[in-house]
Amino acid sequence: MDDFAFHLSTKILYGERAVRSRLADEVGVFNASTVAVITDAGIVEAGLVQDVQAALNDAGVEHVLFDAVEPNPCTDTCLKAFEATQQAGAQAIVAVGGGSAMDVAKAAGILMTNGGDLESYEGANRFAKRMLPMVCVPTTAGTGSELTPFSIITIRARNYKMSIYGDGCLPQVALLDPLFVYRPAPRCSGLRDGCLDPCCGIVHQLRRVPGDRCLCV
């Protein structure tokens, strides 16, 4: 096997009911009195956001809910999420959902600390300041966006997906609560959304980078 180095700067916390028991403590590390919870309507409908809100309420942390994330989110959605986060005066973000919710949260976090036009940040390390502190609560075993420095956003006018990436786009915490994967809305955990994406990624990585085989397995 070829030599390689592996660095993971995102803290991973796993456990049943970890959202109720650990979320407030992790938000507290950021000294955040107000947070933005970014998700989609299906996650709200499934009742998952209630646990997030309860954990924040119990700790006395104010929060604003943005639940308008769509699949393959566009720049307009990111701007709306940013505006909601800014108006609330949030000092941190909690992203709840799959890759779409986390990508929108990352984009909003970048705009919070850098301002400007989101499209100008396409590519590697095009933004100067790290995004707003973020805790990700994944509800699928799909994209792995909670551990990657990427935000993939659709530009509708060009029918084009842009990639924004850099070390400043890595969430600080991935909070893995199996109950959030066990009981999401059916569309969020099915074969199409939860399995095909990571399988395609693994096959691609196996063919492209032989040294990554141990990680793919």
Major sheet strand order: 1-9-6-4-2-3
Order of helices and strands: EHEHHEHEHEEEEEHHHH
Based on the coordinates given, report the CATH architecture: 3-Layer(aba) Sandwich
Q: What do we call the CATH topology? A: Rossmann fold
Which bin fits the share of residues in helices? 40-55%
> Structural class from helices and strands?
alpha/beta
The counted number of beta strands is 9
What global shape is seen? Answer: globular
Rounded to an integer in angstroms, the radius of gyration calculated over CA atoms is 17 Å
Return residue spans where pLDDT drops below 50 for at least 5 consecutive residues: 188-192
Query: Could you give a short account of the major beta sheet?
Result: 6 strands, parallel
Average pLDDT figure: 88
CATH class: Alpha Beta
Notes on the protein architecture:
The chain is α/β, with parallel strands linked by helices. It has a single domain, classed as Rossmann fold (3-Layer(aba) Sandwich), CATH 3.40.50.1970. It is built from nine helices and nine strands. The strands form two sheets. It has a six-stranded parallel β-sheet, sandwiched between helices. A three-stranded mixed β-sheet has the order 5-8-7. Strand 7 and strand 8 form a beta hairpin. Helix 1 packs across helix 3. It starts with 10 loop residues before the first strand and ends with a helix. 40% of the residues are buried. About 2% of the residues have low confidence.
